[in-house]
Amino acid sequence: MAKDPGGERLIIRNVEFIGGMAERHGWRPDSSLPEIAFAGRSNVGKSSLLNSLVRRKSFARVSRTPGRTREINFFRVNNDFVLVDLPGYGYAKISKEKKAEWRPLIESYLKRTTQLRGIVLLLDIRRDPSDDDRAMLDFLAETEVPAIVALTKKDKLSKKEADERAVAIARGLALTSEQVIPFSARSGEGRFELLEAITDLVEAVPETETR
Ligand code: GDP
Question: How many angstroms is it from 46 CA to the middle of ligand 1?
């Protein structure tokens, strides 16, 4: 049964671009809001997922600006959290050198942030995770930041195939089924579940504060 979208706890009222981090030691926002980061290889469907989640023309405009695609872009959502759009990694069509650029930038962000409450890693539902995807998950496991996996382009498979892929990917990455959310930017399937999961991360009290 479809869930009632009126029951959404997170209603995105306002999204404001607050800036980009272009270099390892470069600018990052001085904010005390929780941060939720989105990561995935180029072409996985990250812009489509974020546009579907946020539904703001201004958001799409910023993320399409040339130069911004290699930066880490920060958006304030309501006054609730900061959405961190990490650069897409590991695109096969660019040189090895360029390929490696994302790593120090993303690692530097992850090391510097004190606000990160969760990360949404995007994987194409039809593909097995790449070495870069696994490296990202291993890195996150080390930092102990909770991860959710969004399986993009669900509409490209039948329901049965999509369910089977979700189970196989969760098992392969040793994740629970709650951590894996099949998603389609085309149909909007999974949007509610993803917003719920993000709200849980935003509202969770960080472990460091409970000790
Ligand atoms: P990014 O590089 O990760 O930001 O990926 P994009 O959002 O630009 O998407 C890459 C390609 O995948 C585009 O051609 C999109 O139209 C397509 N795409 C993204 N999400 C979906 C989806 O949910 N369903 C389908 N069928 N195609 C998608």
Answer: 7
